[in-house]
Design brief:
Blueprint lengths: L2 H4 L1 H10 E11 L6 E5 L2 E4 L2 E2 L3 H4 L6 E7 L2 E7 L11 E2 L3 E2 L14 E3 L5 E5 L7 E12 L2 E9 L2 E9 L2 E10 L10 E11 L2 E12 L2
Length: 213
């Protein structure tokens, strides 16, 4: 056996014990380093981190790259492209910035006269998702009218829809907010930008969530 052949077993052995996996972060504490990461059907506890975790901003729901050597696992870092289907949606509380008609027909939802430009507004803590979706009750309550609604993030219109002589109950979106990802305290507005015709229109936000596309 030559001297170069002496090294073959040493070089080959690590290859047999090395592996690459992906996991989804269940919990992650930046202060003390404790963590839980789901890999397949198992939840692994307190994995070592090769890259400093506060620099790569790991949070619950993130997909991370994991290196395996023998029976040890370590997190290489967050996978920034794509995303995990299991990433939890984050609610954004929105509040009406207008006075609603009261007691109209016992509808139980917020409505205004045609011509009123009404707004629901709130702020995100941080936009770690790349899309936004709203749920609610929109459009004609009485009379005959056409109403345009818009979703604004950081003052930029990201989504719009129009109701025509109908009451529309349901979800709108998802709309892309990729340009605002990883920003903090971003304003979110759901607003009527125009309404024509007669009668009253509903603008009732039932939910607003940051989500994956």
């Amino acid at each position: 056996m030559t001297k170069s052949e002496d090294f073959i077993p040493l070089l080959a052995a690590p290859e047999q014990n090395l592996g690459y996996r992906q996991g989804v972060v269940v919990t992650w504490n930046l202060d003390d380093g404790t963590n839980q990461v789901r890999v397949g059907d198992a939840v692994l506890l307190n994995l070592s981190v090769i890259t400093q975790s506060d620099l790569i901003n790991i949070r619950p729901g993130d997909t991370v790259a994991i290196i395996k050597y023998n029976d040890s696992y370590a997190v290489l870092g967050k996978i920034k492209s794509g995303g995990s289907p299991g990433t939890p949606w984050i609610p954004v509380p929105l509040y009406p910035q207008f006075n609603s008609l009261t007691g109209f027909g016992g509808t139980g939802f917020w409505s205004v006269n045609v011509g009123t430009l009404a707004v629901w507004q709130g702020h995100t803590y941080a936009t770690h998702h790349s899309a936004i979706e709203v749920d609610g009750i929109w459009g004609q309550v009485s009379g005959s009218n056409t109403v345009t609604f818009e979703v604004h993030v950081a003052g930029v219109m990201v989504g719009t829809w129009t109701t025509v002589t109908t009451l529309d109950v349901g979800r709108k979106g998802p709309y892309s907010i990729a340009n605002f990802k990883d920003q903090e305290f971003v304003s979110v507005q759901v607003k009527i930008t125009s309404s024509v015709g007669s009668g009253t229109v509903a603008i009732q936000v039932l939910g607003c969530h940051l989500r994956q596309p």
